[in-house]
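Input sequence (333 aa), recorded before submission:
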Amino acid sequence: MKKIAVIGAGLTGAAAARTLVQQGFLVTVFDKGRSAGGRMSSKRTDQGYLDLGAQYFTARSDVFKQQVQLWLEGGQAEVWPCTTVLLAHEDGLSSLKSSRDEQTRFIGVPSMQSPVKALLQDIALITACRIQKLSYQQQSWSLLSDEGQIYAGFDAVLLTLPPAQAQQLMAQSSLPVRFENTADVLEPCWAVAMQAEASPAGDAIFCQHPKLRFISHQQHKTGRNSCYILHFNAAFSAEHLHKPPEFWFAEARVILSEELKIQQSIEPLVAHRWLYASQNDQVPAPGLITLPDQQLWAGGDWSYGGRLENAYLAGLKLAQAVIHSYKLQQETV
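Predicted structure, token format:
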């Protein structure tokens, strides 16, 4: 039975792992975080979860629609009955405009990572484990963690990390680096959760704004803390990347009070920095990164232009690459 190591327990890694297990492969998933989810992670609080990463997902392809339907039937997802508005910023003034659409949006329940955890059910998952070096000898992979643990005997490795992290890992492993033009495909984002008792103007506030890309209110999200989540855009996040949470709380408070006209008390909850979040529109989507001779592949939502659905599809394509390679090996034996 072929042993596969998947590094990264986000949606791409989970989709790849599930597909491979269904085809009879033995899979172990590694993640540096405390739980699976990646950018679909939610933070647990006494009042409910905070969705600091992905706020929702949509389904366009038939294969992803089928998977979403399974999550709906299994209780790991539901439709988000959100109202959508636009926060426009023109001539130094902000205004809220109606922006209704017919798009169906889904969320994980009770947290965004629930669909990922469902895919990884009964699959070996090693968390709080940062892999810092890979070694390929005699057609077998060994993984070394930053705490000195060695995981050996893998026939193939899938990297579902952001390109910059995958590039660093491959450089540390003295492997051919194929990420020279893709390391900056993902841009940073600061996410800020703020508590306010005011009735929100909308659940999903799309932003044409010098600082913001999206504001979400969690009042209609099952299992969540009913609060605002502000996602600052890549340019503003990068400009102030190393500022402390207090800076971001202050920025969020001003926006909520002056631009969303909230007069009630506004209290900070959490500020979280995502170094690799939104897709850089100026960098072409690279597809999968492949080293088939070494049985190593890399991919993620960034491979096909962002969006959570593309993270899932990238996982399927990674698994298919492994399956195809294994069949070729069998044919040549």
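Checked by second reader. The chain has two domains: 1-36+120-183+284-333, 42-112+186-279.
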